[in-house]
Amino acid sequence: MRNYDFPSLGFGVGLRPPHYSRIVDGVDAAGGRAPVDWFEVISENFMVDGGRPLQVLEAVRRDFPIVMHGVSLSIGSVDPLDRHYLSRLKQLASRFDPAWISDHLCWTGIDRRNLHDLMPIPYTEEALDHVVTRIREVQEILGRRIAIENISSYMTYRASAIPEWEFLSAIAGQADCGILLDLNNIYVTAYNQGFDPVRYIDSLPVERVRQFHLAGYSDHDGYLLDTHDHQISAPVWNLYDHAVRRFGRISTLIEWDDRIPEFELLAAVADKARLRAESALG
Ligand SMILES: [Fe+2]
Question: Distance from the CA of 182 to the center of ligand 1, in angstroms?
Answer without folding.
Answer: 5
